[in-house]
Amino acid sequence: MRAKKRKARPREYRDGYKDGYHLGMCEAVQRLNPPVVGVCRPFKLMYVPQGFEAIDTGVAEALGQLISELVFSTPETMLETAAREKPQAVLVMNGLHTFPGNHLEQVDEIRRLGITTAIWFVDDPYFTEDTSTICSHYNHVFTHELGCVEFYRALGVESVHYLPLCVNPAMFHPRRTGPQYQYDIVFIGNAFYNRTELFDKLAPFLQGKKVLIAGGFWERLSAYEQLSPFIKNGFIPPEETANYYSGAKLVINIHRPWGAGQDNRNSFALPSRSINPRTYEISACGTMQLTDVREDLGNFYRPGYDLDTFGSAEELQQKMDYYLKHEKERRLYAVRGLHTTLRHHTFTARLPHLLNIIGAQV
């Protein structure tokens, strides 16, 4: 005997229709805003990734469309690969964390071969104790942090350029998700002290809602016992992160603190003025974002149009409560944020500026 097929309840029909309508709107935005790809230029570039999957994949895929020949190297074999392949330029991502002790000696030798070198710092200003030394070994320094441009120039680097982060829409995009990814409120990131302070204050409000808090070190919470049902400890891979973003009603973005100590090596105490990659990634998934404010946010997104902002736990709680109850407004923010991201903030739109600069010297 065949089991009877369970009939969908009216609420399931309604929710399915709304989700389908929203994904249809997102698909229309994607069709109207295909990736901006410039002319493929005759250029041979060697790329040395850091190990940030979302960024490295975005850079590699974009460069594959923008230049005629792309060579990859590990940080350990930079000099060997450059000597063998003889690229016109070498681009290093970040130069921190996973790079070997002879990293800078390799860069110096590559320059002696007559090869142009460039580095893109994407962890600024949190490691200025290290980047202040690294920067002078490269022909060109790019930084995603507005507040670090004059810092590197003051250290004697002649070619310093502001290159904001962006997103790979092939990895972060709207998608249909299963119930395991569907939450009212999502935050993904490590538990820096400003984030734990915020969630400690929000703990009573979050009770009774479907919430995901994912990342490392969340045992730092004072309200850990109360919030523990919401916490998924450990690293979340980019593809899974995109699933959580796409399945959420609201995603919270809280930038990390920039002060020296507190998980940073910012011994020069440079303030952070620029937005993080999460800003672009959330919007690329077609989900509404509530973010704290960095100085250059308005240069990339329109607060009150593409996303909304908060300045305190009280304001964040008020806005979460409002937007969870006002679905139409929430979805409008999501679609407008997606549109802005696809029009202006992809790797294929960002990297021609870098190529123009390093290509002018070769």
Features:
alpha/beta; 362 residues; 6-stranded parallel sheet; 13 helices; 12 strands; globular
Total helical segments: 13
Instruction: Output mean pLDDT.
Output: 94
Measured as a percent range, the helix fraction is: 40-55%
**What coarse outline follows from CA principal-axis ratios?**
globular
What strand order characterises the main sheet?
A: 2-1-3-4-5-6
Strand content: 15-25%
Characterise this structure.
By secondary structure, the chain is an alpha/beta fold. The protein has helices at residues 10-32, 53-66, 78-85, 103-112, 128-134, 149-154, 193-206, 224-227, 238-247, 277-284, 313-325, 327-344, 347-359, and strands at 41-48, 67-72, 89-93, 116-121, 140-143, 160-162, 183-188, 211-215, 231-233, 248-253, 288-291, 308-309. The strands form 2 sheets. It has a 6-stranded parallel sheet, sandwiched between helices. A 6-stranded parallel sheet has the order 9-8-7-10-11-12, with helices on both faces. Helix 4 links the parallel strand 3 and strand 4. The N and C termini lie far apart (75 Å). The model has no long low-confidence stretch (mean pLDDT 94).
What is this structure's SSE topology?
Layout: H1 10-32, E1 41-48, H2 53-66, E2 67-72, H3 78-85, E3 89-93, H4 103-112, E4 116-121, H5 128-134, E5 140-143, H6 149-154, E6 160-162, E7 183-188, H7 193-206, E8 211-215, H8 224-227, E9 231-233, H9 238-247, E10 248-253, H10 277-284, E11 288-291, E12 308-309, H11 313-325, H12 327-344, H13 347-359
Parallel strand pairs: 1-2, 1-3, 3-4, 4-5, 5-6, 7-8, 7-10, 8-9, 10-11, 11-12
Helix pairs in contact: 1-12, 2-13, 3-4
